[in-house]
């Protein structure tokens, strides 16, 4: 099997998903492209909101001080800008499901660095109608990679999106919060005490906040969030 894999890799080498150079690694982003990505290194300790470069990386943002998020921690690999926007759009709308492997690998490495040990992964659920339309849930695809690498189980059915909501794109923070309120429901008993929500992009955090609210209402003690990217809040 290993010989067959090596032969296949030699005949059909992986290519960087950004510049298309040949790469010999699991994460299909070459070192040069990876270095140029907008890494979300200077961010809020609680919600991972990107902060200006002249602000310390060990602070909580004003939004979290004013209103503490429903989740306990958040980690986002990149800022939602430049090549990352295209990467997410290709995964989410361009049906480049293969990107989920590299993204999942990067999220797993980040999870290892955090020292957090969640009991399960919870991909943000899609409404059945949206799932049928798209054909897949990008958060599930990413979660599968993280689960395989970490051994952490995925919780597929405990929480459902029972109300179909308009897309959050184009809505401001208050509109997003109203739009997503009551969209999720717990469908079965949750025995896990530490749940890690997996999503693609966090903008105002309205979706993950609502999920965290539902989870904690049903006995979950600690809720974390991991995403590919974090967008700066504009409103």
Summarize the helices and strands and which ones pair or pack.
Layout (H helix, E strand, L loop, with lengths): L1 H10 L2 E2 L6 E2 L7 H6 L25 H5 L6 E7 L3 H10 L6 H16 L5 E4 L4 H7 L3 H13 L8 E3 L11 H8 L3 E3 L7 E9 L3 H12 L4 E9 L5
Parallel strand pairs: 3-8, 4-7, 7-8
Antiparallel strand pairs: 1-2, 5-6
Helix pairs in contact: 5-7
Strand order of the largest sheet: 3-8-7-4
Number of domains: 2
Shape call: globular
Q: Rg to the nearest angstrom?
A: 18 Å
Residue share in helices?
25-40%
Q: State mean pLDDT (0 to 100 scale).
A: 86
Give the name of the CATH architecture of the largest domain: 3-Layer(aba) Sandwich
From the 3D structure, determine the CATH topology of the largest domain: Rossmann fold
Question: How would you classify the helix and strand content by structural class?
Answer: alpha/beta
Low-confidence stretches: 1-8
- The number of helices is 9
End-to-end separation in angstroms reads: 53 Å
Q: What pattern of helices and strands is seen along the backbone?
A: HEEHHEHHEHHEHEEHE
Top-tier CATH class of the largest domain: Alpha Beta
**Main beta sheet strand tally, sense and closure:** 4 strands, parallel
DSSP strand (E) fraction?
15-25%
- Count of DSSP strands: 8
């Amino acid at each position: 099997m290993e010989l067959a894999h090596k032969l296949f890799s030699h005949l059909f080498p992986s290519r960087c998903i950004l510049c298309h150079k040949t790469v010999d690694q699991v994460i299909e982003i070459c070192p040069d492209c990876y270095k140029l990505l907008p890494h979300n290194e200077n961010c809020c300790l609680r919600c991972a909101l990107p902060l200006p470069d002249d602000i310390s990386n060990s602070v909580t943002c004003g939004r979290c001080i004013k209103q503490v998020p429903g989740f306990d921690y958040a980690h986002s690999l990149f800022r939602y800008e430049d090549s990352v926007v295209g990467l997410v759009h290709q995964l989410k709308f361009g049906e480049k499901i293969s990107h989920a492997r590299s993204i999942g690998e990067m999220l797993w490495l980040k999870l290892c660095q955090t020292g957090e040990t969640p009991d399960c992964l919870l991909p943000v659920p899609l409404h059945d109608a949206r799932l049928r339309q798209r054909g897949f849930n990008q958060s599930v695809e990413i979660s599968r990679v993280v689960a395989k690498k970490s051994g952490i189980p995925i919780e597929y059915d405990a929480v459902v999106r029972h109300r179909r909501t308009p897309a959050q794109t184009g809505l401001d923070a208050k509109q997003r919060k109203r739009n997503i309120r009551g969209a999720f429901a717990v469908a079965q008993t949750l025995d896990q005490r530490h749940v890690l929500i997996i999503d693609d992009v966090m903008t105002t955090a309205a979706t993950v906040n609502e999920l965290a609210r539902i989870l904690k209402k049903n006995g979950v003690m600690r809720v974390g969030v991991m995403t590919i990217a974090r967008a700066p809040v504009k409103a």
